[in-house]
Amino acid sequence: MNILWFIPTHGDGRYLGSAKGARQADYPYFKQIAQAADQLGYTGVLLPTGRSCEDPWLTAAALAAETTHLKFLVALRPGLMQPSVAARMTSTLDRLSGGRLLINVVAGGSKEELEGDGLFISHDERYEATEEFLTIWKRLLKGENVQFHGKHLQAENGRLLFPPAQTPHPPVFFGGSSSAGIQAAAKHTDVYLTWGEPPAQVKEKIEQVKKQAEKEGRTVKFGIRLHVIVRDTEEEAWQAAEHLIRHLDQKTIEEAQKVLQGMDSVGQRRMVELHQGRKDKLEISPNLWAGIGLVRGGAGTALVGDPQTVADRIIEYKSLGIDTFIFSGYPHLEEAYYLAELVFPLLPFKRSGDTGLSVPAGEIIGNNHFPDAASAASSS
Q1: Residue-wise pLDDT tens digits, 307-346
Q2: For labeling, which of 79, 93, 116, 176 is most exposed (least CB within 10 Å)?
Q3: For the chain, how many structural domains are there in total?
Q4: For the whole model, what pTM was predicted?
Q5: Domain containing residue 334: CATH number
């Protein structure tokens, strides 16, 4: 099992859709989150991509120097860069970070945003171009001299002189809910990522991707992208969820949904369909809450509950074939601790690296002894 956290380079705060309690998302704050995730034993962190975020490659390069074990899931955007440039960036960051790079292939998104970036091809053509991009990119990272003539891309005598630390290349993560996306993912991905839909829908998607991958003679691992709200009790967790959207008015929701519904992303459309822009129908599956998707693009659902309940829901997804979980929560620094301290001990998860716990955890009682770890475990 792998558990990743999230660096909120698009902003952070205590409430959705409100400047109240908003937090300045800057490098010192990203550094705090990354170092916390590193010390707590998270496998890695995801860095978002798009015009609403800081550049993930530059951010990851800076944070890699501030951490020891943490891996960085960074976006490649076919169509917005040449595969040869992407291969050099991949190789350099992988080597300089000591083999801690993971690749998140992002082919979809907002048509308007992509056109603003200079990409004017259709939804399905973007996935065609992605397949060509990854074919060239992989061959370069393997050390091949690349000759390639495709519909969208060409390469003559392409070479990469500096190899990556991981062979043949860093692991490739890839989503895509459309037929074109699943087809491209089945050919190229190491880990297929799905957003946090109810287990029945996730199971259906996993089976669909597996069948397509089998046609390509490949096997694929699976990951899921979710938010999380965990507290000592179920009641406290649901109160925290409601607290998160307490300042969210209908006008703000409608403005956000208008933008999200205009995207040609099938995955985004499926997220919108879960809540339909309504605040009164947000628990879409036991302990799965769609409130975040009212105003946030991308992953819009959260696991909500006490530690054991959240752990049970994670295990439920794991039983479907998910082995990589990418979580986030608001605010991201505090919630990274909540998840690690309350839920990690209940999961079959081996923390990455040295968590720094060279002495027993907890404050010494009466200047005399540490709290009893056994009693803490039994009370949970």
Answers
A1: 999 999 999 999 999 999 999 999 999 999 999 999 999 9
A2: 116
A3: 1
A4: 0.92
A5: 3.20.20.30
